Amino acid sequence: MTVVLSARGLAKRYADTPVFSGIDLELAPGEIVALLGESGSGKSTLLNCLAGLDEADAGSITLAGADLRAMDDEARSALRRKELGFIFQAFHLLPHLSVADNVALPLRLLGQRDNGRVVQMLEAVNLAALAGRMPRQLSGGQLQRVAIARALVHRPRLVLADEPTGNLDARHAAEVLELLRRCTHEAGAACLLVTHSEVAAQAADRRLRLDAQGLHGE
Ligand SMILES: Nc1ncnc2c1ncn2[C@@H]1O[C@H](COP(=O)(O)OP(=O)(O)OP(=O)(O)O)[C@@H](O)[C@H]1O
């Protein structure tokens, strides 16, 4: 089996407080895996460690065949720009850039300009008509659709989504999840989706739960 992301024996503590240990995880291309767990169980910390934004204390992480923890900061940033899309609960769009420019950002950071691809992604999330708008002129559901387009525009192999529907009402949450599902499946990207919502978790291909004993399939 081809594996996009593989983590082995991951452990993380803050000072004297262990957050998690012994975490093993594998994600295959095209699958969406929901990550569930109580508040404070360490879901966001695990996501940040997998993204290389936070440093695990032990274990290994292989992303797209590269050993993340053995890399220096520069190489890790370059790998992240190429292979990772991140979707946050609070959208994190740049307020002074238009919708199209926000979606184009990951390509620009890779030194690429591909307006056709930006339009294609805006069409995929049904926002082509709003390409010239500024983020403040969009609804929460529309902002999250922009964030999905931005996370996938550079064809990353891994998408990490941290409660991407946490700010949305049920109808918009369902719409955004369906788009995330369709876009990641079509792109063949693996997606790890942190969520408190059982409905969101049911939309995933697999469900994992993080607790004091570690990470378990459901
Ligand atoms: N920078 C930090 N320094 C110290 N402790 C931290 C830090 N960040 C997180 N923690 C602690 O680590 C634990 C895990 O936090 P984390 O945010 O990963 O949980 P979570 O499962 O994502 O929670 P939630 O569902 O509420 O977002 C918590 O007990 C939290 O207080």
Structure characterization notes:
It is built from seven helices and ten strands. It has 218 residues and is an alpha/beta fold. It has one domain: Rossmann fold, CATH 3.40.50.300. A six-stranded mixed beta sheet has the order 6-7-8-3-9-10, sandwiched between helices. Strand 1 (5-14) and strand 2 form a beta hairpin. It is globular. Bound molecules: adenosine-5'-triphosphate. Adenosine-5'-triphosphate is lined by residues 14, 19, 37, 39-45.
Helix content: 25-40%
CATH architecture: 3-Layer(aba) Sandwich
What is the tally of beta strands?
A: 10
The overall average pLDDT, rounded, is: 92
Keywords: ATP-binding, Cell membrane, Membrane, Nucleotide-binding, Transport
Organism: Pelomonas cellulosilytica
GO molecular function: ATP binding
Protein name: ABC transporter ATP-binding protein
Give a quick rundown of the structure.
35% of the residues lie in helices and 27% in strands. It contains 7 helices and 10 strands.
Helix/strand layout:
Layout lengths: L4 E10 L2 E11 L4 E5 L6 H8 L7 E6 L2 E2 L5 H11 E5 L10 H11 L5 H10 L15 H13 L5 E5 L7 H18 L2 E5 L3 H5 L3 E6 L2 E4 L1
Parallel strand pairs: 3-8, 3-9, 6-7, 7-8
Antiparallel strand pairs: 1-2, 1-4, 4-5, 9-10
This protein binds adenosine-5'-triphosphate (ATP).
The site of adenosine-5'-triphosphate has 10 residues, from α1.
InterPro entries: AAA+_ATPase, ABC_transporter-like_ATP-bd, ABC_transporter-like_CS, ABC_transpr_LolD-like, MacB-like_ATP-bd, P-loop_NTPase
GO molecular function: ATP binding
Keywords: ATP-binding, Cell membrane, Membrane, Nucleotide-binding, Transport
